[in-house]
Amino acid sequence: MTEWQAALRWDPENLVLREQIWAARYPERFHPTIDWD
């Protein structure tokens, strides 16, 4: 998680990094299906 946050500081527009952080913080919203709401 710390590495992703450091990388996000270098590239704040990177949506892949944001999605990885979101999935790590809120796994219940991504598994087994994505909660779009």
Question: What descriptive keywords fit this protein?
Answer:
37 residues, mainly alpha, 2 helices, 54% helix, elongated
Question: What does this molecule look like?
Answer:
- With 37 residues, the protein is an all-alpha fold.
- The chain has one domain.
- Helix content is 54%, strand content 0%.
- The chain contains two helices and no strands.
- The mean pLDDT is 87.
Reconstruct the topology from this structure.
Blueprint: H1 2-10, H2 15-25
Helix pairs in contact: 1-2
Short description:
The protein has 37 residues and is mainly alpha-helical. Helix content is 54%, strand content 0%. The chain has one domain.
The low-confidence runs, each spanning 5 or more residues with pLDDT under 50, are none
- Estimate nothing, just give the exact number of structural domains: 1
Q: What value does the Rg take, in angstroms?
A: 11 Å
N-to-C order of helices and strands? HH
> What overall form do the CA principal axes indicate?
elongated
Can you count the beta strands? 0
* Derived structural class: mainly alpha
Helicity range: 40-55%
Overall average residue pLDDT: 87
The major β-sheet equals: none
- The proportion of strand residues reads under 5%
Span between termini: 24 Å
Task: Please count the helical segments.
Answer: 2
